[in-house]
């Protein structure tokens, strides 16, 4: 079986490499010259554990190829996946579908026979219908079907999520399209994973609904952390107490500085706009967006308060810049407003992240000091702030951290450290909701 993947970014590259691992012939189309060159040379444009080896092995086998010619990629393809970006549109919060629609038109012009055109990108309800209109208008002579196959990949665990998914959601209107998708996902169906077939609109909405629900869980436990601080409770025990309820579950109940990344901020905002336009506003999701924005912007105030109310002339170490560990993604990361506020208030900010330094540089103030590791960042610091819970930060020795610092303040925005151990090392520990 052969497929084409339009877009060699995070979703397209991971999905394409995993399909190739299943024995499918995959042609990835990437129009960015620099990214295309990197892919052909085996250099990954993103950081994702295990992806480099997966790409290299399947490229070496000939199952995975890269090019910029859609026509060549689509030769003999039974399915064509659109996996281009859908960033938040500036000014109104809607998903920008210009790349999706441009890809649909290019696919239509290149088609030589029947194929299923599949949206892998996260798109609002109704996008599949619009893609069908574009293809019919561009090529009224061609036979095709449109399907929706949203991705549910977590950055840092994307390969595992693809290979062993909780579920695969496929929206399709015809049996011919469903049969093509069944054959494509046969290796996953053999693992007894649930393959859920729905209508196209249902599949499109399911992706947004899933991310919004998880974002609500994150926001809920963050608000409970704030309440715990006021009433003397421990949010970690609260989270465990409610997470043991099978109806709730323990995942996404870890308090933190607010969610970021490529999905939750963009998708919750897009869902708000979708619901408003449909005349059925989602007040819960609207509140999640507002609360999360306020939380991220308010985290620096916690650090300033821990430092006695002002940071001018002080040195602050920030450990972790990416929105989560095991990725180099800086999109909507809480570290951005935190570092900007601290630097703006006159602090010298020393930062370190294992993978996100290059992506962070254009997003942070020019006077930030870039360090080589965690202890280098903490050297001479009056306070250290843990923003991203990389494993190497979890293993940091309290005694060595205290010895590197000039001051005693430790602000743990992920609750990864043992407060007792940190206090025994002479540090003044500040967590969330503890």
What is the gyration radius calculated from CA atoms? 23 Å
* Broad structural category: alpha/beta
Enter the CATH topology name of the largest domain.
Answer: Rossmann fold
Q: Could you give the order of strands across the largest sheet?
A: 3-2-1-4-5-6-7-8
Helix content range:
40-55%
Number of strands: 14
Q: Give the end-to-end Cα distance, rounded to a whole number of Å.
A: 54 Å
Shape: elongated
CATH architecture of the largest domain: 3-Layer(aba) Sandwich
What is the domain tally? 3
User: CATH H-level name of the largest domain... which superfamily?
Assistant: NAD(P)-binding Rossmann-like Domain
Uncertain residue ranges: none
> How many DSSP H or I helices?
19
């Amino acid at each position: 079986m052969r497929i084409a993947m339009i877009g060699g970014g995070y979703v397209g590259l991971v999905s394409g490499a995993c399909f190739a691992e299943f024995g499918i012939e995959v042609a990835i189309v990437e129009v960015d010259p620099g990214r295309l060159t990197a892919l052909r040379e085996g250099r990954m444009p993103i950081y994702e554990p295990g992806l480099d080896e997966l790409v290299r092995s399947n490229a070496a086998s000939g199952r995975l190829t890269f090019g910029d010619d859609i026509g060549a990629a689509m030769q003999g393809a039974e399915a064509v996946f659109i996996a281009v970006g859908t960033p938040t549109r500036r000014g109104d919060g809607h998903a920008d579908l210009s790349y999706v629609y441009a890809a649909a038109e290019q696919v239509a012009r290149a088609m030589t026979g029947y194929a299923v055109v599949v949206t892998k990108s996260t798109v609002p309800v109704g996008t599949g219908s619009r893609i069908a209109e574009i293809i019919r208008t561009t090529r009224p002579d061609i036979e095709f079907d449109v399907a929706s196959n949203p991705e549910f990949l977590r950055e840092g665990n994307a390969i595992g999520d693809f290979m062993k998914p909780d579920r695969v959601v496929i929206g399709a209107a015809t049996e011919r399209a469903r049969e093509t998708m069944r054959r494509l996902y046969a290796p996953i169906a053999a693992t007894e994973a649930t393959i859920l077939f729905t209508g196209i609109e249902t599949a499109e909405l399911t992706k947004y609904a899933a991310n919004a629900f998880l974002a609500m869980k994150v926001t809920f436990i963050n608000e409970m952390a704030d309440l715990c601080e006021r009433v003397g409770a421990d949010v970690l025990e609260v989270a465990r107490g409610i997470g043991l309820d099978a109806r709730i579950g323990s995942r996404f109940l870890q308090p933190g500085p607010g969610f970021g990344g490529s999905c939750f901020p963009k998708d919750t905002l897009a869902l708000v706009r979708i619901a408003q336009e449909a005349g059925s506003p989602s007040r819960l999701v609207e509140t999640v967006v507002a609360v999360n924005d306020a939380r991220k912007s308010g985290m620096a105030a916690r650090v300033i308060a821990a430092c006695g109310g002002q940071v001018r002339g002080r040195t602050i170490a920030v450990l972790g810049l990416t929105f989560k560990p095991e990725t180099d993604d800086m999109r909507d990361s809480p570290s951005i407003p935190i570092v900007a506020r601290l630097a703006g208030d006159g602090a010298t900010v020393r930062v370190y992240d294992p993978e996100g330094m290059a992506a962070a540089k254009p997003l942070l103030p020019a006077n930030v000091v870039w360090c080589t590791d965690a202890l280098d960042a903490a050297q001479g610091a009056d306070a250290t702030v843990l923003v991203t819970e990389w494993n190497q930060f979890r293993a940091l020795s309290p005694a060595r951290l205290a010895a590197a610092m000039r001051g005693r303040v430790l602000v743990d925005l992920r609750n990864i450290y043992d407060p007792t151990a940190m206090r025994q090392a002479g540090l003044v520990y500040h967590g969330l909701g503890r």
